[in-house]
Every structure is written in structure tokens, then in C-alpha cells.
Design a protein that fits this description.
Length: about 160
């Protein structure tokens, strides 16, 4: 079974742990703390990204769409949103309170190796294996959803 553990770097002791699954060996490729350090975002295979309370460790909800192996995930700067990208080029953004998927991109140019919100939280920057960086905007930012404005090679 897979386990989630939080360690204190000052004392070197484990502060808490939780069993992620009992039957299958779930693999999570990315774990992120929310900006306030109160929540954890885990992303991995089977199209799942899971939200956990950090202390005590407690499962909150799953952002699930079966889109593929989520390689990387992150929180928005205010913690209200989470985003994740898959190996097959799918990008999603969710509301961390309701779990509602509010943005998705199916036409990303390739394997998404990294996902980050901009510091103002208004757009998402992704990168993929061909060294391209793409910036995606939500529909409320005045750009068509799912379109990218920048495509910068070898940055």
C-alpha cells in the first residue's frame, strides 16, 4: 500500500502519516503544499489529483477525470484553485473548495512536464519535453479558453 508521510526537518521525526490506498499500489508523481501549508495536492496516474488536509492528514476530495497520468500539479497563489497536467497533454484547473473542474485544455502540444500559476493567479504556465513553454488563460481573462498566447522555445 502507498503511504503519505509528513516529516519535521528540524527534529527529523515523522509528524504524521496516512494510508493512501489499501488494495492497489497507487503512484503519485507530484505532491504540493498549498500556499498556507494547510492542504496537500497529490497527482498521479489514473487521471486523479487528490486534495488532503495537511494536519492532521485527512483526505478531502479527488479531482478525477481519467484523462491520464498527471505528471505535475500545483496550487494557485491564493490556494483557491489547483491545476494539473498529464503525459498525454491534458491540462485541468479545479476549484479546491467544490472540486468543480473550471478549465481544461485538450490540445496542449505534448507531454506536460511542469505546471505553474503566475503570481497573480490569472494564467497557467506549462512546459513540455520539447522545451516549449505555454501560457494558458481562463475565459474570464479575455482570451478563448484552451488557447495559449505565448509559445517560447528554449527559454
Amino acid at each position: 500500500p502507498s503511504r503519505l508521510e509528513i516529516w519535521n526537518l528540524t527534529t527529523g521525526k515523522k509528524e504524521s502519516e496516512a494510508l493512501l490506498d489499501e488494495e492497489e499500489n497507487e503512484y503519485y508523481s507530484c505532491i504540493s503544499f498549498s500556499p498556507d501549508n494547510k492542504k496537500l495536492l497529490l497527482s498521479g496516474r489514473d487521471g486523479k489529483a487528490c486534495l488532503w488536509e495537511a494536519s492532521p492528514l485527512r483526505f478531502i476530495l479527488t479531482f478525477s477525470d481519467g484523462s491520464g497520468h498527471y505528471i505535475h500539479s500545483c496550487f494557485s497563489p491564493d490556494g483557491r484553485y489547483a491545476a494539473a497536467g498529464t503525459a498525454d497533454g491534458f491540462l485541468a484547473k479545479w476549484n479546491t473548495t467544490t472540486g468543480e473542474r473550471i478549465f481544461e485544455v485538450y490540445n496542449h502540444p505534448g507531454y506536460i512536464s511542469n505546471v505553474k500559476f503566475t503570481s497573480d493567479g490569472k494564467s497557467i504556465l506549462t512546459s513540455h519535453k520539447n522545451y516549449y513553454f505555454n501560457q494558458f488563460f481562463s475565459k474570464h481573462e479575455g482570451y478563448p479558453p484552451g488557447k495559449y498566447r505565448t509559445n517560447i522555445k528554449n527559454v
